[in-house]
Structure formats: C-alpha cells, structure tokens
Amino acid sequence: MDLKEIMAVNLRRKRHDLEMTQEELAEHAGLSAHYVGAIERGDVSASVTVLGQIADALGIEPGDLLRRAGRATKS
C-alpha cells in the first residue's frame, strides 16, 4: 500500500469516527468536497499544504494521516 492509499484509508476512518461528512470536512479545511472525495478514493495525492489543512480540520497531527495501521508511535 502506498502513502496515497494509506492517507485515503486514514482520512476516511477519522472522518467517519468524527461523524463528519466530506462536505463538512471540505468546508473546515477550505477545500472542495470533490477534492476531498478524490483524496479519500486515492485518485489524487494531496500536497503537504493540503495534508496540513485536512489534519487541522480533523484536529489531528498531519503524520497521523500517513501512519500505517498497527504501527506504534515512539514515546
């Protein structure tokens, strides 16, 4: 799985955890809902700027969107 796919899975999971629609996320992140959908499908790669905007809108660290499932973080 490449980083684009990892981000897509993590983004979708976190957005669902927050019970947020793509439209709500897009509004909070200053993006279009179409673009958010394309990122979630893995159709496009988000720039680091967009990664930051999405992470801020979700209230998480940008790296959380790129972390493979099951990987522990260092303390």
Low-pLDDT stretches:
none
The arrangement of helices and strands along the chain is: HHHH
How confident overall, as mean pLDDT? 93
CATH superfamily: lambda repressor-like DNA-binding domains
The rough form would be described as: globular
What kind of oligomer do you see?
A: single chain
Profile the largest sheet: none
State the end-to-end CA separation.
25 Å
Q: At CATH's second level, what is the architecture? A: Orthogonal Bundle
Domain count: the total is 1
CATH topology: 434 Repressor (Amino-terminal Domain)
**Secondary-structure content class:** mainly alpha
- Estimate the strand proportion: under 5%
How many individual helices?
4
Helix content: 55-70%
The CATH class is identified as Mainly Alpha
Radius of gyration computed on alpha carbons: 11 Å
Keywords: DNA-binding
Pfam families: HTH_3
Protein name: Helix-turn-helix transcriptional regulator
Domain HTH cro/C1-type: 11-65
Structural account:
16% of the residues are buried. The termini are far apart. With 75 residues, the chain is mostly helical. Helix content is 57%, strand content 0%.
